Amino acid sequence: MTSLAGRTAVVTGAGQGIGEAIAGALHAAGAEVVVADIDLAAAERVAAELGERARAAPVDVRSRASLAALLDDVDGPDVLVNNAASTVSRSFWEIEPAEWDDVLAVNLRGVFLGCQLAGPRMRERGWGRIVNLSSLAGQQGGAIAGAHYAASKAGILVLTKIVAKELAGDGVTVNAIAPAAVRTPALAAMPPERLEAVRATIPVGRFGEPREIGALAAFLCSEDAGYVTGATFDANGGLFMR
Ligand SMILES: NC(=O)c1ccc[n+]([C@@H]2O[C@H](COP(=O)([O-])OP(=O)(O)OC[C@H]3O[C@@H](n4cnc5c(N)ncnc54)[C@H](O)[C@@H]3O)[C@@H](O)[C@H]2O)c1
Q1: d(CA 15, CA 21)
Q2: What does pTM read for this prediction?
Q3: 109, 182, 202, 216, best to mutate for ligand 1 pocket (most atoms within 8 Å of CB)
Q4: Which residues have C-beta atoms less than 6 Å from ligand 1?
Q5: What is the dihedral of CA 183, 187, 189, 193, to 10 degrees?
Q6: Which residues are CB-contacts of 100 (< 8 A; sequence separation ≥ 6)?
Q7: How confident is the model at residue 186 (pLDDT cuts 50, 70, 90)?
Q8: Does residue 11 contact residue 18 with C-beta atoms inside 8 Å?
Q9: Does the pLDDT at position 4 exceed 80?
Q10: Which residues carry out catalysis?
Q11: CB 79 within 8 A of CB 8
Q12: Domains of the chain
């Protein structure tokens, strides 16, 4: 895979879990990485572990001003990974409108704002990579997360295609990754019996590892992936096959 040396990558929600692994994979590919998170202490820990060519930055992806300030502070970016999300487990009948709005604001408006702010900067440079984190929940409805989460992740899939078409002629690709059952802090917090019940449904027989999503994201951000745009990549252990 081609190197990302000289490229600047911003990863939102990179203070833990999949975002942390994506930041690590882009860093290993040679990029300068901005580890952005609403939890600045978590972002600082990740950036310190990565070392040279990494730094932490605060961001609240619900806020256009916050995302604009983040992007104004970097050279580029060449790569934006819209990974930050709020994963809320709630029965459909119990979702309050305020919680619906907040989950949509983080998960869907955050991606819309990230694409709208970063797209023109990438277009101007004639090169860019945007990767949006969707979910199996956005394709099939969530087994664990609520309808607000699933609806936001479904929205990301069509938004990815719309932005991909807008930027396709300018050297900028936009793709989505739809993971499921990846071993992250949220998963680790589940009771062991529930975890085992979920594991038993996964055709490959195990949970996914964050580094596996990181490797896929790094490929999509590479030079070699320039012909791939508007696509959704399933990384779900075979839970959903097209
Ligand atoms: N873990 C899985 O199995 C799985 C499955 C499908 C999809 N995904 C998707 O992958 C992505 C990462 O998942 P994860 O499990 O690592 O999530 P996580 O909940 O472990 O981490 C999310 C990160 O986003 C940050 N964040 C939350 N709200 C924010 C905001 N308003 N602004 C900026 N940062 C904010 C959090 O502080 C946290 O560091 C998410 O988009 C998630 O929906 C994960």
Answers
A1: 9
A2: 0.98
A3: 182
A4: 12-13, 15-19, 37-39, 42, 59-62, 83-87, 106, 133, 135, 179-182, 184-187
A5: -100
A6: 148
A7: confident
A8: no
A9: yes
A10: 149
A11: yes
A12: 8-235 (3.40.50.720)
